[in-house]
Amino acid sequence: MAKATQEDKMAELLIREDAASVAHLTLNNPGALNALSDDMLAALKATFTDLIADTSVKAVILSGAGKAFCAGHDLKEMQAGRQSPDGGAAYFNDLFARCGEVMQLIPTLPQPVIAQVHGIATAAGCQLVASCDMAVAAEGTRFGVNGVNIGLFCSTPMVALSRNVPRKQAFEMLTTGEFIDATRAREIGLVNRVVAPEHLEDETRALAATIASKLSSAVKIGKQAFYEQIQMPLDQAYDFTREVMAVNMMNADTAEGIQAFIEKRKPDWPQ
């Protein structure tokens, strides 16, 4: 019974709606600005783990309920953890390890993950946006790694942020604690697109639908190769990706896609 209750609680915190091969995940704790509490992290981990093996889903959208995408860690919960009998450095090490595990799950998913961002995305919430494969933001959205303002340097959010934007821009955000707007976020590469708030969901769904229309096995192998090669020296990256493309070319569905292009028709791919 306790397990079912915990599962119900996670289902309320992270709503999953599947349609047309797209899984839409909604962070659903608007009263806390969808903070990454212990329960929210557990819900994200469980859902991402399920998606790894879900071949019916070809793209994932991650959004937030209420007036914000995500305000980062739950500071009240963190303060309570500091005072708990098992608190202290061990507690915080465990918290940040669990958060890092969730962030690192995103690039391991076979499906591209698109952040649908509005309101604010701060600290670990900004880290979550940076960890997603793509991001669409509403005009007026603000992004920040603001921990330095309360004496806590955003060191773990820095990992994802510094792998998305130029280092000087990342360092300025980290050391000033200042927000940037959606337009600036697009300029420095933190988000892909900026749209009017009333079009945010439609634009994000359209992007997800475009991805879902592609051959999922090709997208899967491409996403995995993207994250592996980007960490390699140039010559190693070419050696690695030529092997990846050779394997991809041997896929019967890829052969069908090429033949369909030659014959000027739609490919007959598995749905």
Observed structural traits:
alpha/beta, 9 strands, single chain, three-stranded mixed β-sheet, Lyase 2-enoyl-coa Hydratase, Chain  A, domain 2, six-stranded mixed β-sheet, 2 domains, 271 residues, 12 helices, 2-enoyl-CoA Hydratase, Chain A, domain 1
Description of the structure:
The structure is a single chain. The protein is α/β, with parallel strands linked by helices and 271 residues long. The chain has two domains: 2-212, 2-enoyl-CoA Hydratase, Chain A, domain 1, CATH 3.90.226; 216-262, Orthogonal Bundle (Lyase 2-enoyl-coa Hydratase, Chain  A, domain 2), CATH 1.10.12.10. Helix content is 52%, strand content 14%. The chain is built from twelve helices and nine strands. Strand 2, helix 2 and strand 3 (59-64) form a beta-alpha-beta unit. Helix 4 packs parallel to helix 5 (124-131) and helix 5 runs parallel beside helix 6 (155-161).
Q: In brief, what are we looking at here?
A:
This protein has 271 residues and is α/β, with parallel strands linked by helices. It is built from 12 helices and 9 strands.
Question: Any chance you could write out the topology, listing elements then pairs?
Answer:
Elements: H1 2-13, E1 14-19, E2 22-27, H2 38-52, E3 59-64, H3 75-83, H4 89-108, E4 113-117, E5 120-122, H5 124-131, E6 134-138, E7 142-144, H6 155-161, H7 167-176, E8 180-181, H8 182-188, E9 193-195, H9 200-212, H10 216-229, H11 234-249, H12 252-262
Parallel strand pairs: 2-3, 3-4, 4-6, 5-7, 6-9
Antiparallel strand pairs: 1-2, 7-8
